[in-house]
Amino acid sequence: MAIDIAQALIDAGKKYKKELLAMPVAALAEVFPFLTVVTGVQGKIIGGILSTDAQLRPYRTAKGESDGTKIEAFEWETFLGDVVKEFDPNALLGSLYTELTATKANETQIAKRVALEMAKKVGEALFDNLFTAIRNGAGNYTADLFNGYSTLIKAQVNAGNLTLAKKNYVDNSGVKITSDNAGDVLRAFWRGRSPLLKKLNVNLNIPTTVLEMYEDWFQVEYGHAPWNTGIEQKVLVGSGGKCTLVPFSNMEGQNFIFMTIKDNMKLGVDQMSDAETVEIRRVDNPKVVQFFMKAYFGVGFETFDKTYFSAMKISLDPIADLAKSAIAATTATFTWTAAEDATSLKIQISSDNGVTWADATHTAIAVDAATKQITALVAETTYKVRLIVVDGLNNGYSNVVTVTTSAA
User: Using CA atoms, how far apart are residues 129 and 141, in angstroms rounded to an integer?
Assistant: First the structure.
């Protein structure tokens, strides 16, 4: 008897609706130990932190006054998204099920498997974009649905809410992280954090490659220590066991690492109302069916206060081939390998051997440019020159080139 896979899929969509709606969230299970999942969220949610200067003082009759108590609110948001995917169910049968006829599942089991696989793919896309997504209401992909963790951090840096003065941010993009210095960089980040943050059990969220570099560094530094029981390291040395290293494969290429507690890192879904739905239905073309899902999703932080959060801008692969190509009395031209996913570039010069730097005079540099001429130089003067890449894989400072202008 031939399998009517199309009708079986439609029936499976109805029968397993709850499981299908839960599958995209379940596909994110590997991140659950390090963040807090909030259900029943549709749209914006207000978080925040109470700050106060209340203290126990020596007793006296006068009541005293204080205006030092306030709630610093922060808003984060989930967004309604949908999936509309048409496919030929018969074309999937051969790829999804190739066992001997005697062991084949029935049409209901096959339909359930196909439906769950579709829902799982939705979750995998959410995972891939968890840090990098940038909200674009006119977009067509998961990358456009919500603002990822790295996107939110960058927005707070640009808004001046994450700064060195507030002790919740440090820009370390001038130093490339390598296997030779990864442990020193991460320990310095930890040591410079608020004492209140360091009292908590925090997670230091980093790209997987940073953990690998840290482990290489650790083996060189402590490889023969009697208490070193293995290569894999889960806790930052020097943190007293308070700072857990949490590697994320979907953070690769990101410019920020950050330290926070599990309760401060939010992942919002609905999963509770009729606003979310999933179904598999027929369309005009009798050979295909349509997978339709509608659900809320978003991520955020409860607060960026230094007592619960701190971020560091890093550089993993800065431009290393900046080179001079033409030098004149008042101009110099430079080349480099074009940066990936940069948002801006500029060239800086120093006439005091790198003690101080200033922006060079040049026209705007396209983010994918690989050459630029700088002007307004002084004849017969020696300069050090560097390229600054903002964002993307090559974020940070390039190698430094020394040039001497010719006589006028």
Answer: 10
Distance separating the N- and C-terminal Cα atoms of the chain:
91
Q: 173-224, pLDDT tens digit by residue?
A: 888 899 999 999 999 999 999 999 999 999 999 999 999 999 889 988 887 5
Per the structure block, which two tokens stand in for 379?
Answer: 């004849």
Q: What share of the chain is helix, strand, coil (3-state, %, to 5)?
A: 25, 30, 45
Phi, psi of 360 (to 5 degrees): -75, 160
Pinpoint the alpha helices (H) of 84-148.
89-96, 107-128
What backbone phi and psi angles, to 5 degrees, belong to 29?
A: -55, -30
Query: Which stretches within 97-230 are classed as H helix?
Result: 107-128, 149-158, 182-191, 195-198, 208-222
10 with 115: CB under 8 angstroms?
no
Range of the domain at 105: 1-47+71-179+259-316
Which residues, 6 or more positions from 166, have their beta carbon under 8 angstroms from its beta carbon?
306
Q: For residues 343 and 134, give the distance between their C-alpha atoms in angstroms, rounded to a whole number.
A: 14
Q: Which amino acid is at 230?
A: G
Q: What is the pLDDT of residues 85-131, one digit of tens each?
A: 787 777 766 555 555 444 555 666 767 777 788 888 888 999 999 99
pTM of the model: 0.78
DSSP state for residue 241 in the 8-state scheme? T
β-pair partners for 206: 247
The answer to the question of residue 90 being in a domain is: yes
Per-residue model confidence as pLDDT tens digits over 385-397: 999 998 887 888 8
Q: Is residue 26 part of a domain?
A: yes
Kindly state whether residue 296 falls inside one of the protein's structural domains: yes
Are 282 and 399 members of one domain? no
Cα–Cα nearest to 279, from 11, 4, 90, 22: 11
Q: Are 186 and 235 in contact (CB under 8 A)?
A: no
Do 332 and 324 meet the contact criterion of CB atoms below 8 Å apart?
yes
